[in-house]
Write a structure and sequence with these properties.
The protein has 19 helices and 17 strands. The strands form four sheets. Strands 7, 10, 11, 15, 16 and 17 form a six-stranded mixed sheet that branches.
Length: about 550
């Protein structure tokens, strides 16, 4: 019997090593995507938090970059972390040592979960989330049988790790408590929670110091209102990222087998809870398919254990789930091949960034729009770059880094299409549009503070608002700049595109010294707007577009 068990362990570690080397090959030869390039910048600028996510994805990138360059400089610790995640999940699974099929089923199920497999070689915040989900469930299972100092400490560490990975970690913790209210009567669980909060406090302080950018973005800015396609696309997306054959087996299990014990009930709660919670978010906007990826861990556990007891399910996993791995394999080969369309995001980017580099040389490059372009440019060339956001693009970590401050007074290349300024430069087989400047000026360092007692307006009302304009930059801001002139506008944001309205000032503004402030009164007439609720703010507009330079307020158009 001991020899048989040893052979099972040998098979497990052979397959685990194979998993690692396949992902290593994939990580080396699959082109980096834009999000990974963005997270690689996190690793170069370590902090307790970032605009979009908690800091652990930055730590993974930092550690990878200490040992490797290129793709592995962003992916190595991701590739290393998933086998450790699988090892922890294997430790959670019961009744496995005397059955060879358990090992085979385990790896078939894990490999078939599409998004779980992807996070074995692509670096995102979901990578540490999956690791700490597994660690949390292991600590929780041990805590149920023996709540001693060791299991309490592991619970605290894993809960902190979940929050440091991704905010979905909080949902996981809540679902565990909802599945087992007896935890709230256990003083050691409270101790674990308090210690976890203490461990996470540096991140919460970072959020406070930066005016809670992550919470505002995820809870407010990402809200796009209800659209039927958000609702109807959700379930098909979930079926796709979990693999239709595997997802079908999970649904079958949930409906045909009652959970036995507190831990099994928790696994059911996590699967159903994650899918339900993010289904509800479709009423306020698009739900990304990968947001539910933490449910992969309980799926692997439940299906592996059930397949050892249910011969019918065992045959299904080998026959249907097993054969579906061929489709997963084909998709992974296509990622490496570079044959997929560029819009998929895994090829063609390096050539474009190198084309820009041939024009810009060693000059920093300034983009407009999204975070993807400057992140990719820095990753592939190593040169400094940034993006200037506007009302037409969301804010990102670049708005906190404010890298453009260090570019003022330097020669920079602006990769923009601006009438009468931009030049089309031939670069290899591509054409790069933009222009050089020696005196960059941006408007995102200006803050406009105003108060308005009246929040209800009628069409064509005349509005007069006292404002204070603060220049948070250390450089003089020139409203009549020869290359980057700026003007203040009123902004109204409803269900459609923002509406900009010209304003007049009580006294013209020529310059605002670095760190200085100016007080004026702004006057304008309300434009033609749709009746109902709107968001009102004030913007400083330049060739980068209008930036939102104030805390907006809600108003009612009668």
């Amino acid at each position: 019997m001991q020899q048989t068990q040893t052979s099972y362990h040998r098979l497990f570690f052979i397959l685990l090593a194979g998993w690692f080397f396949i992902n290593l090959f994939q990580g080396i030869f699959t082109e980096i995507n834009a999000d990974e390039a963005y997270y690689a910048l996190y690793g170069k600028n370590l902090d307790w938090g970032y605009f979009d996510h908690p800091p652990l994805v930055g730590v993974l990138n930092y550690l990878s970059a200490q040992f490797f360059g290129g793709n592995l400089g962003a992916r190595f610790f991701t590739i290393l972390l998933q086998p450790l995640t699988l090892l922890i999940v294997w430790k959670i699974i019961s009744k496995k040592d005397d059955q060879k099929n358990a090992v085979i089923h385990f790896f078939i199920i894990a490999a078939s979960l599409v998004m779980f497999s992807v996070y074995g070689f692509i670096t995102t915040p979901d990578v540490p989330l999956l690791f700490f989900t597994a660690l949390f469930l292991l600590s929780y299972k041990n805590f149920l049988s023996q709540s001693n100092a060791k299991t309490t400490a592991l619970m605290a560490l894993s809960m902190a790790g979940l929050i440091y990975s991704k905010y979905q970690g909080a949902i996981l913790i809540i679902l565990v408590v909802l599945s087992n209210f007896k935890l709230l009567k256990n003083i050691k669980f409270w101790i674990a929670g308090i210690v976890a909060l203490m461990l996470v406090s540096p991140h919460f302080y970072w959020q406070y110091s930066n005016h809670f950018p992550s919470f505002r973005y995820h809870l407010i800015d990402r809200s796009a209102g209800f659209k039927w396609n958000y609702f109807f696309e959700y379930l098909p997306n979930q079926i796709a990222v979990f693999n239709p054959f595997t997802f079908g087996a999970v649904v079958y299990l949930l409906f045909t087998k009652k959970p036995s014990g507190d831990f099994a009930r928790t696994l059911y709660f996590i699967i159903v809870g994650f899918i339900t919670v993010f289904a509800l978010t479709t009423f306020r906007g698009h739900a990304e398919p990968h947001w539910t990826v933490a449910a992969s861990i309980p799926m692997i556990i439940l299906l592996t254990e059930a397949s050892m007891e249910n011969e019918k399910l065992s045959r299904y996993i080998k026959k249907y789930v097993g054969w579906s791995l061929l489709l997963v394999l084909m998709a992974r080969i296509l990622l490496v091949s570079g044959l997929l369309p560029e819009r998929i995001g895994f090829n063609g980017k390096k050539e474009k960034t190198e084309a820009i580099h041939r024009i810009a040389g060693d000059c920093p490059v300034v983009f407009s729009g999204s975070f993807q372009n400057p992140s990719l440019y820095n990753f592939f060339t190593g040169n400094e770059s940034t993006v200037i956001s506007s009302l037409y693009s969301r804010q990102t970590q670049f708005d906190l880094w404010r890298k453009e401050e260090g570019m003022k007074g330097k020669k920079v290349f602006l990769h923009l299409g601006v009438k009468d300024k931009s030049i089309k430069y031939p670069s290899g087989t591509q054409e790069i549009e933009g222009f050089f400047s020696n005196d960059l000026q941006t408007t995102n360092q200006l803050e406009i503070i105003f108060t308005s007692a009246n929040h209800e307006f009628s069409e064509r009302d005349s509005i007069s608002i006292p404002v204070t304009i603060i220049n948070h930059s250390s450089h003089i801001f020139n409203m009549n700049h020869p290359e980057f002139p700026a003007e203040i506008k009123a902004v109204f944001i409803g269900d459609k595109e923002p509406v900009l309205q010209n304003v007049t000032l009580s006294e013209p503004i020529e310059k605002i010294k670095g760190g200085g402030k100016i007080q004026r009164t702004i006057n304008f007439k309300l434009p033609n707007l749709e009746k109902g609720k709107q968001v009102f703010g004030l913007s400083v507009s330049s060739l980068f577009g209008p930036t939102l330079n104030c805390d907006p307020v809600k108003i009612e158009i009668r």
